[in-house]
TrEMBL record:
Residues 269-282 form the SRP54-type proteins GTP-binding domain. This is Signal recognition particle protein. It catalyses: GTP + H2O = GDP + phosphate + H(+). The keyword Transmembrane does not apply.
Length: 296
């Protein structure tokens, strides 16, 4: 494959004539370029270090097959390792429980939780033929509750009312009762976010998790957040047993290095990517395609 990185690496090894394999001496220079490419894509530094160490192990001594140059071979190894790191695991939503299957949405304010809740509702209705209920536990921002009502209608799902004078845990209990009585397959629970990590927020979402026992706890993260996504992922991953990630705003111009950071830090699969503000802007995450984008 041809990429800016392949070109750079090829130039680096141009003078190494007769080089039959990737060696310790040429790999160091090449890995420096890979490291730069990952940092330019906003992958968090500790994640870059780990990744480079893994690639170095794999690259050393590897035969360069046929007409491939060491630069291209290394990019091949990097691409494969990137895709493997970002792509392990199942990508669709797990619904293998006694209904209603509860899905808890977690993440910072502005990450795209409410939008993604509606996108997922539509996905589950259309692709999995499920009866879907949504509810908002964001009692701090009445506008967020209204926003969920609007987008849920667009998704063709049902919305369970909640209001600012209720406690999130009471809302959760009432919604799950309603979902049971009315035979919903799935209950999607949108939660409050803050602009930054905050202990009260974490305590609240942990309590919600304990009450709801969700089959999926999805961490919603904005791809444009770059390096900050790593810290956010660590905080949510420490607080909650996450089951998957939704990486939003991949239609933006970021290289999407956050994917590598959040995948490596949380250890859970990136299940979906948000690709527009619209209700149908949700795609199953494609790790291989994304690897090419991260490398630029
Ligand atoms: P929340 O605070 O986490 O619930 O975030 P919202 O769902 O309200 O989203 C915040 C903003 O990001 C809104 O303007 C959304 O339209 C926008 N948004 C969410 N997901 C995407 C996406 O995948 N692509 C784009 N371009 N915008 C998105």
């Amino acid at each position: 494959m041809a990429s800016a990185l392949t070109d750079k690496l090829s130039r680096l090894v141009k003078n190494l004539s007769g080089q039959a394999r990737i060696t310790e001496s040429n790999v160091t220079d090449m890995l420096r370029e890979v490291r730069m490419a990952l940092l330019e894509a906003d992958v968090a530094l500790p994640v870059v270090r780990d990744f480079i160490a893994r690639v170095k192990d794999k690259a050393l001594g590897q035969e360069v097959i046929g007409s491939l140059k060491p630069g291209q071979a290394l990019v091949g190894i990097v691409n494969k390792e990137l895709a493997a790191t970002m792509g392990q695991g199942v990508s669709d939503i797990n619904l293998a429980v006694q209904p209603p299957a509860v899905i808890l949405m977690a993440g910072l304010q502005g990450a795209g939780k409410t939008t993604t809740t509606a996108k997922l509702a539509k996905h589950l209705i259309e692709k999995r033929k499920k009866k879907v209920l949504t509810v908002s536990g964001d009692v701090y921002r009445p506008a967020a509750i209204e926003q969920l009502k609007t987008v849920t209608a667009q998704a063709g799902a049902e919305w369970f009312p909640s209001s600012a004078d209720q406690k999130p845990i009471d809302i959760a209990r009432a919604a799950i009762d309603y979902a049971r009585k009315h035979h919903f397959d799935v209950l999607l629970v949108d939660t409050a976010g803050r602009l930054a990590i905050d202990e009260a927020l974490m305590a609240e979402i942990k309590a919600l998790h304990a009450e709801l026992k969700p089959v999926e706890t999805l961490f919603v993260v904005d791809a444009m957040q770059g390096q900050d996504a790593a810290n956010t992922a660590r905080a949510f991953g420490d607080a909650l047993p996450l089951t998957g990630i939704v990486l939003t705003k991949l239609d933006g111009d970021s290289r999407g290095g956050a994917a590598l950071s959040v995948r490596q830090i949380t250890g859970v699969p990136i299940k979906f990517a948000g690709t527009s503000e619209k209700i149908d802007g949700l795609e199953v995450f494609d790790a291989e395609r994304h690897a090419g984008r991260v490398l630029g």
